[in-house]
Amino acid sequence: MSAGSGLIVPRKIARPKSPRRLLDWQPLHDPRSLDYRATALVEAPTLHDVRWRAGKVLDQGAEGSCVGHGCVGCIGTEPHPAPASRVTHAEAVRWYHHAQGLDEWPGADYSGTSVNAGLKVGRAFGWWDSYRWAFGVDDMRQAIQLGSLVIGIPWRSGMYETGPDGVVNPSGSEVGGHCLAVTAWVTDYAGHGPGFWWRNSWGLDYGIRGDAFVTEAVMSDLIAKVGEVAVPVGRKIGKTLDA
What we know:
- By secondary structure, the chain is of the alpha+beta class.
- The chain is built from five helices and seven strands; from the N terminus they run E-H-H-H-E-H-E-E-E-E-H-E.
- The longest helix is centred in the middle third of the chain and has 14 residues.
C-alpha cells in the first residue's frame, strides 16, 4: 500500500500470517491535520473524569473492518447516540468498505484503511459536521470533552486479552493495527492512575464486557509517531450506509 501525493505513511504496520484476529488498521497521516487540532476548540485538558455512555458492543469476528466498527461504535455513544438498530455489524462492514473507497490508496485489491478515511465517511453520511485531531495524551484529554474519540494504534500480542481488572497489557510483539472508540478519561482506575477507557469490537468476552482501561503512559506509547486520534465535531444522527 502506498499513499497519494502529500500524505504520509509513517511506517508499515506488522501483518503476521496467522493473527488471532484480523487487524487491518493502517496509518495514513495528512500534514494538514495539524491545522485542525481539537485543542483549538477546548480551553484545557480536563482535570475531572469525562465519561460518554456507550451503546451496543459489536463483534467484528473474522472481518478486517475495525475502522468501520470503531466508527460505528463511536456513533453509538453519547452525546448523540444512534438508535441501537443502527449500531450493527453489517453497518460497520459497509462503513469500512465506504472508507476504502474514500481513502487515498490506489486500487481495490488491499485490506485495511485509515481512521482518516473512516471519519470522512461519517461526514459524508451526515453523522458529524467535521472532525478534529489529537496529538498526544494531553490533546486527547481536551478532545474527549467534545465526545468519544476514534483511534488507530499498533496492536501487540499481549493486548488480545486484558488483565482480570480490564487493564490493557501492552507486552509482546506488534501483530497488526487496530481501530477502537475511546469513551472516557478518568483520574484513576483501581490504583492504576489516570487513563482512558476504550470500547473494542471483539464482543462481550473482551475486557470488562467489551471495554478496557489503558493508562496514559501506555496510550502515549501506542499513539506516538504512528497512531491516529480523531474526534467528531457536530455529532448528529446520520443516514444509513445502505441508503
